[in-house]
Amino acid sequence: MLVEQSFAYRKKINFSGYNSPNIAEAFQVLSEHCTRLDEINLAKCLWLTDKLLIPLLNNNKKLKVVNLNECTSMSSAGLQPVIIECNLLRVLKLSKCEWLTSGAVDALTLHHSNLVELDISHCYSIGERCLIIFFRMFDKLEILSLAHTPSVTDYVLIQIAHHCPKIKHLNLIGCHKISDLGIEAIATHCKELESLMIQRCPNVTERVLGRLRGSVHIDKPRQFNNYPLYDARIFLQV
Q1: Signal sequence span per UniProt (predicted)?
Q2: CA-to-CA distance for 188 and 98, rounded, in angstroms?
C-alpha cells in the first residue's frame, strides 16, 4: 500500500536508457498506479511498445513533458493519447522515431499550439508540406531540433521565421537542403535566437552566418574560403 501510494503521488518518471530483462513488467505496475505524472522520460527504451505505453498515457492526461527519443519499437498509434488528451503538453521529444508519420504530425497540429520545445530530428517519414503547415501553428516554440530531417528546406525555415519568432535554440545539423535563403529569414525575424547548430549544411555560407556571429552561438567555425588569398611577399618590404 505504501508503494502504491508513493506511485500515486509521483510527478515524474525517468526510465531513460533502462533496458534490463524485466523492465517491461515493472513498467506495467508503474503504469497502473501512477496517475499524477506531469513528466515522463522514456528515451532509448527499446522495449517500449504501444501496448505498454498507452495505459500510462491514459492514466496521466496532464502530462507537460514527454520524451520518447529513440523509442524504436512503437508506432504512431502509441502517440495518439498524447495528441488527443494531453492538453497541457509543452515539451515533446521524438528524435529517431522513424514511425512518426505526416498524419501524426497533422493531428498534432490540430490539437496542440502551446509547445515550447520540440525535437523531431532524424524523422524521415515527415513531408515538407506537413512541416510547412505545422509551423504556422506554433508561435510559442523556443527550442527546436530538426537535425538530419530530410524534408527541411528553405521554405520550411521561412515558415519558422514568420510564425515562430520566439525561437531561441535551433538545431539544423545535417539539413543539406537548406541554404542562405532560409537562414537569412531566420536571422531577420527570430530576434531572440541564442544558438544555431548548422554543421553539415554545405549550402549555408559565411555570407549570412557572419551577420549572426557575436550575438548568436554558431557551432560551425568561421569559413574564410570565400576570401581571396594574397601572396605574402606583396606585403613584405625586402
Answers
A1: none
A2: 32
**116 is a domain residue:** yes
| 133 within domain boundaries | yes
Alpha-carbon distance of 43 to 21, in angstroms, equals 17
Domain count, the chain: 1
Q: Which three cell numbers stand for residue 94?
A: 521524438
**Is 28 part of any domain?**
no
pTM score of the predicted model: 0.90
**Residue 158 counted as domain residue:** yes
Write the single-letter amino acid at 180. D
Under a CB-based contact definition with an 8 Å cutoff, are residues 164 and 189 in contact? no
For residue 187, what is its C-alpha cell? 536571422
Instruction: Give the number of other Cβ atoms within 10 Å of residue 153's Cβ.
Output: 18
Domain, as residue range, for 207: 100-219
Longest Cα separation, the chain: 90
CATH number at residue 212: 3.80.10.10
- Residue 120's nearest CA partner among 192, 61, 172, 180 is 172
Among 106-110, 146-150, 164-168, where is mean pLDDT lowest? 106-110
CA pair distance 31, 142, nearest whole angstrom: 31
Per residue in 155-208, pLDDT (tens digit) is 999 999 999 999 999 999 999 999 999 999 999 999 999 999 999 999 999 999
Question: How far is residue 90's CA from residue 79's CA, in Å, rounded to a whole number?
Answer: 15
Cα 120-32-69 angle, rounded to 5 deg: 15
Residue 50 in contact with residue 82, Cβ under 8 Å?
Answer: no
